[in-house]
Structure formats: C-alpha cells, structure tokens
Amino acid sequence: MKVVFVLFDSLNRHMLGPYGGTRIPTPNFDRLAKRSVTFDRHYVGSLPCMPARRDMLTGRLSFLHRSWGPMEPYDNSFPELLAKAGVYSHLVTDHFHYWEDGGATYHNRYDSYDFVRGQEGDPWKAMVQPHWERLREKYHERQFSTQRRNYQAQNIKNREFIKEEEDFPSVQVFKAGMEFLEQNRDADNWIVQIETFDPHEPFHAPERFKDQFKTDWTGPIRDWPRYGRVDELPEECEELRANYYATVALCDSLLGKLLDDFDKHDIWKDTALVVTTDHGFLLGEHDFWAKNRMNMYEEIVHIPLFIHDPRRSDLAGARSDNLTQTTDLAPTFLDFFGVEAPDEMIAPSLFASLERPTREGVIFGYFGGAVNVTDGKHSYHRYPADLIRQEINQYTLMPTHIFSFFTPEELSNASLSAPFEFTKGVPLLKVPVIERTPMNQHYGPGAMIENDTRLYDLVSDPGQDHPLRDESVEAAMTELMLGLMRDNDAPPEAFTRLELQSPEKQTSEG
C-alpha cells in the first residue's frame, strides 16, 4: 500500500465545487470527487492549527486538556506506529508552526521531512534594515509593522523574495511532493504528507490567479484580514475576499498537478489519496473575519474530506453522510496498512464509518472556550457563565505556548496530576491558567468576542442566523455532549465550568 495525504490549511468546504461552491472554479477538486468518497459531514476536533494536527496524529481530542502545544511523550502518532510496522513516512510542508516552540515535536515523528520556507511569519529572510518607508507605501496599514519578531513584519521581508510563481512556498511543496513520488514510485509501504499553509492568510497568490477575481480596489496590498469583527468598507472587504479566492484557485491548480501525476502513471490502482484541511475561515459571514474570536460556526468547523482507496474502485464518486472528524485520520492511516490502533486511539477508522454510522455526535472546540457538539442536525455551543473567572488547567509535560515557554508565573502554582486514561500511567503537570498567560491574546478565553451559549437547527437554519430555543433539544444535545466528554476523559473542572455533572458527582448520587 502507498498513501498520499494532502493537507491544506483554512480551506473552506462550502467554496469547493463538490460541496456546491460556485464562486471559485475548482475543476480539480471536482476531478478528485469523481475518483473518491466525498464526506459530507466531516468536522474539526481541536483548534486551531497545531491542536488540529495533534488530533490528526494521535487519533484523539486534545482541547479539553491542553491548548496549542507540542506532541507529548505519552502521545501515539500514526507515523511512529507505521514505522514499527515497516512503513516509511515522509513530510513535505511549508507550515512553519512545526518549527516553533509549540510545534517542535511533530515533524520528528516522521522518517524524513522537507521544510519549504517563506510562509506568513516564518523567520526566513534576515533583513536587518529593510527599506521600511518604501514598504509602508506598498502595504495596507493594518498589515504593516516594523516590529521585530512580528509576523506581519517578517511576512513583508519574506515577500521581497517571492516574485515568480515558482518562488511561492505552496508551489515548492507540491513540487517536492511529486519528486518524492517520482523517486519512490517503485517502492511499497510508504505514506507521504504533502502539506501547505495555503490558503491560510495572508492570501498571497501569483497574479494569474488574482486576475480571475479583479475588484475595484486601488489601495495598497490588502490580503491579510485581522481576527475579529468586520469594520472595513465594502470595497476593502471585496479585495480581502478576492485574494482568498485567488489562493484557493492556486490550491486547486496545485492539486490538479498531483492528479495529473496520478493519471500519467496510473497510480490510482495502487496508491490511496486523502485530501482535507484543518479548519475553515470566516470571510465576513456572521460579521466576522477568521477564527479564534467567535462562536464555532459551520464555516469554521464543517470541513472537506476526500478519500480515494485503490482497493475500493466501486466507491469512486460516492458520498458519505455519516459523522466523521479529524481524529479519524490516524486510525484510517493505520487501517490502510493493516496496523492495529492502540487503545488510547479512541477515534474510529473512516473505513468503519463507510460500513455503518460510528457516531451519534462529535464534540469540538478551542481550549478554554465553549464545548461544542453536533449530531449533524443541530449544533450546540455551551460556554461557561463567566469565560474569564473559572478554574481551567493545562495538563502537559511539554509546557510551551506557540513561541514561548510557559512563564515562571504560570508554572509557580503547578502541581502533579494523576494520570489520565490516555497517558499510559504517566502523571502530568497541572498548570492553572492565569489571565496573563501568553495564550489569552491569541486563542484563549481572553481572545473571545462571542461567549454566549447557543443552539442552532442546521436543517432549517444552515446559515446559523437564528439561535433556537428548545429545551428538549438542548437537553438531548447536553446529554450527547456529556457522554462524549466522558469518553474523552475530560478533567473534572471541564464539567464544573459548564455547570454539568462530572462523572464523580453522577456516581456519588446514584
């Protein structure tokens, strides 16, 4: 068996042709759907970027116990489990978060890896004294900075070296991925992960893709929306969206080159292909840009997934409406190679979901935010009564944030916690979350703008425009949430902060 795993970042499901999207031509996603099973009810787990990847590698949710952080010493990972079974794994990526403090244990789980430089704030090009006055005129003030160790300032430096189409990191990623295919075409038992940061912001694509989505914007470069409420003028909003469309069109083109390679060498017959993303991205829907600041709307959490299995040619063009989740990827990759999943990997293989429904619902969330649940017909988003003043702890043996260690102030009240059922008998540091944690300004409780509990009917109100008031449905969704939290061994305070019965309290009363 051979497997190609293509992972995009922030790819909106509803904009792809196979899911009814019409604003952006996506002929190559259409081609892929004809060769694959298209999953119609596939959802995120833990967000944002690195928590999602931890779910993908380990086959279990992490957001109930931990924010953005490294793989932990007790974590299973599908590349290491495959290595023990003689399967080679290779990662090709331009996702620079793998090389920051909060992601630095991921890429080493693979047998080999190839890192392409230059995306967003990747500390790639060293320009000690850039010509800031020239560059200030080139970029919109909301995406301009001269600060050191600042993503926007670094991105401006990087883009001085990304001129031609072949310079773009995503283009280089797919080129390197296809070089792997060329070099290993006659080998067996391998998986290659071709992962690009695109279409994540900033929405930077070659001009030929931008030409398809011309706007009336005459101002400086405007392709990086801030996270939060929309307050831009309409023409500015259109330019931001147009640049996202152009980047998705670039992704579609790159996917097409890979599909051409599958066609040219007829590797459909012996090579699996899995294509998905980590989460979506708001482009003004619900009056918001991006993610991390608002309720977890469908545009963010309902994501695309396509799987071609060479052993099941009869499934080409099929669709599955069973509930699935990003955690299901790890057991699926093991399943491709006949490797048994460990007990801690509680997510089911996607192949099992093709045979029968494997879930009544899925839960998902940001650490420190709401716990969210859907059964595919309703979505329920339950917040604490007070998002800031609550007991919440990080459970970890790897105390780092995105680009820093936990501070001494954070660690000063740490204690040793008993093992969870998934930590293989290992006790963990229990670190109380404080208001001054670096996490808060990015994706923690302090970053949230919306924090009110809501219920939506996804059938009658797919745009989630009108919160539903129905006590019986809310009770059913709460019970579903409770069961899934228990299945994932959520810590006791996770129940308390949501005013739910913890497993201990339920046992003591009956």
Automatic annotation (TrEMBL):
Keyword terms: Hydrolase, Metal-binding
Classification via InterPro entries: Alkaline_phosphatase_core_sf, Sulfatase_N
Pfam families, A to Z: Sulfatase
Keyword rRNA processing appears in the UniProt entry: no
Residue ranges constituting the Sulfatase N-terminal domain according to the UniProt record: 3-339
Region: Disordered, residue numbers: 488-510
NAD recorded as keyword: no
Protein name: Sulfatase
The organism of origin for this protein: Rhizobium mayense
